Amino acid sequence: MQTNLAPEYADRAEGQAAEAILRKCVHCGFCTATCPTYQLLGDELDGPRGRIYLIKQMLEGETPTRKTQSHLDRCLTCRNCESTCPSGVQYGHLVDIGRKLVDEKVERPLGERLLRSALKEGLPSKMFGPAMKLGQAVRAILPEALKVKVPAKQAAGRWPTATHDRKVLMLAGCVQPAMMPNVNTATARVLDAVGVQAVIAPSAGCCGAVKFHLNDHDGGKAHMRANIDAWWPFVDPTDGSKPVEAIVMNASGCGVMVKDYGHVLADDPVYASKAERISALTKDLSELLPDWVAPLRARLRENNGASDASGAALPMLAYHPPCTLQHGQQLRGGVEQHLSQLGFSIAVAQNESHLCCGSAGTYSVLNPGLSKQLRDRKLGNLSQIGADTIVSANVGCISHLQSGTDVPVKHWIEVLDAALQAQP
Fold first, then answer.
1. What gap in Å lies between CA 415 and CA 176, rounded to an integer?
2. Would the CA dihedral through 128, 131, 136, 142 be positive or negative?
3. Alpha helices in 214-266 (DSSP H)
């Protein structure tokens, strides 16, 4: 795609980065076939190709409008189009740039500004935990619109106390400790079972995705730099201790962001090389599964089909692979393959397993109508599996799917941990 940048963008890093991405697009339209919002709305401008044209027009000097902003807002940033694109267009990076530049030109209505500010300041805040506890305490009397955003209180379980020579860093996350604390403790227990100790750097916080994807790029980068500073003593220790083997993410939304630190901070003279190393060390939890199969299989046994260590039947699992895992990180099939090797019956939906569930970070709050349509569509496809439990790999997907079904929705690591904990 040929572009002619307007003078105001020709010398800006964002303009040059966007132009490089745009030049890879060949107008083929394959992306529209797998775009969730195009599937729902049937509007070319609510698909990747249309949004690319809108961004191109702005970069070439056309003044963006409120309509431009709305079409970009309706994008889930699921990056399904990247999995489909034969030309390797980095649409996720392009839409981040486009939204930021549009927001510089188009003022949002007051209500939108207040809501977006509350999300980007509130979710990563230390006050989120106490606020969630209060919401859970009065959950029974909350209006339905709020109740679906407040999961029932969850017992976290114990954190393992054993120490191991092998260590990995783990990001606790900003919302997960309050909403689903058992995910982190379950991760630590499973790691402990294979002889690896999970370590959390106390001063590490939000991965930066919340602010970055709400167009506060400076705020997002500040979170990224703070995490790099918090992790660096474990990555490159100066006291003679052994460095951590990896930085493990059990929320795929955080994982895709941290793996992108090297790209986002590439022009930072202080943090660029450190960010690149942090990204290289970052692994989704599922990437560790291949090494776990042999030691964990010894602790699980088969008894007329899949069973845990006590002989109880393992639940039938319906797996929803998050977009941040299958499209953002390009990791597919690992969870299903290796849990199957451990004796679990697990399946993905036969229809539309590639499509977004509608959670998409803050999307379910900002675009509730489209989000619920996608949720119900996803749950309808998953229900055909007839599973006892739905599993996923991201806190947002889990919470969003659970808001629309009575079938338990959990992180797959919780199900694996429960099977291991059921030993005599």
1. 17
2. negative
3. 217-235, 252-258, 261-264
* Cross-strand pairs, 346: 317
Pairing of strands 316-319, 345-348: parallel
CB 106, CB 65: distance < 8 Å: yes
Instruction: Give the DSSP per-residue string, 354-374.
Output: TS--S-TTTHHHHSHHHHHHH
Helix axes 48-59, 91-105, angle to 10 degrees: 50
- Mode of pairing for the β-strands spanning 316-319 and 247-249: unpaired
What are residue 306's DSSP bridge partners?
302
Q: How many CB atoms lie within 10 A of CB 286?
A: 26
- Which residues does 135 contact at the CB level (< 8 Å), separation at least 6? 142, 146, 150
Structure token digits, residue 162: 């054993």
The answer to whether 207 and 258 have CB atoms below 8 angstroms apart is: yes
Query: Using CA atoms, how far apart are residues 223 and 286, in angstroms rounded to an integer?
Result: 25
Q: Average pLDDT per run of 10 along the chain, which is 424 residues long? A: 91 94 92 95 96 97 97 97 95 96 96 95 91 89 84 89 96 92 96 96 94 96 97 94 96 97 97 98 96 89 46 80 97 95 94 96 95 97 96 97 96 95 68
Measured at the CA of 176, the angle between CA 170 and CA 178, to 5 degrees, comes to: 125
Rg (CA), the chain: 22
Q: What is residue 72's three-state secondary structure? A: helix
Kindly report whether the global pTM for this prediction surpasses the value 0.85. yes
